[in-house]
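So, read this over?
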Amino acid sequence: MTTYVLIHGAGHGGWCYQRVARRLAAEGHTVYSPTLTGLGDRSHLVSPDIDLDTHITEVANLLFHEDLTDVVLVGHSYGGTVVRGAADRAIGRVGKLVFLDAPDGRSQIEAFPVLLKEREKGRIIDGVELVLFPSEELVRFFGITDPEDIEWALPRLTPHPWKTLEQPLELHNEPALKAIPQYRIVSSASLGLGVHDGELLAASRAEGRFWEIDSGHDLMISEPDAVTGLLTEIAAAAVEVR
């Protein structure tokens, strides 16, 4: 059995993995889907101090305090940057890294220039610059189109602290990080937007570590069976020495 740690993207929370987590747990796996501070069920803790390092440290601390090893660490969207940083700080605890529609390795505004337009619509509340205020338009931008899914997701989305999106990712153990097997699952919707690193995708394809799911960006909500199936396949895959 496998231990999965599932990290959500901007404006979301651990709730967005509910369908995938239940399916993995039903197969006997151990699943953690924490909510990053300032978001979801922890939105009441939002503060001006929250940045990318805050979220990276939270995930690294989870791996340490729960004494987790050989973890399949999954990051969706913004969460891809978080899990890359957490794996860098928790070398020896992560067995495989999975980037779920996540352009890893860059600050989010580098990967998603559209966020600069979102910043224009943002607001400063209690000293915190927040963006991605929930709306039906935003939900559809995330690729959620089923009316029941929209009704479920919309009230659970929360504004996101801007500071986490513009802070560059700093790595301290890059050689060891590169040695961790890395896998990429992307949505068909995101491939045409130019947000993914073409060289990384090409390398992942050549290594058999790339999959495309015909869905929108929030594919863990819209395609939980496909995502669950690929995560179990990745966990079972033999690791080839590169």
Summary: The chain has one domain: 3-236. The first strand starts at residue 3 and ends at 7. Residues 3-236 form a domain with the Rossmann fold fold (CATH 3.40.50.1820).
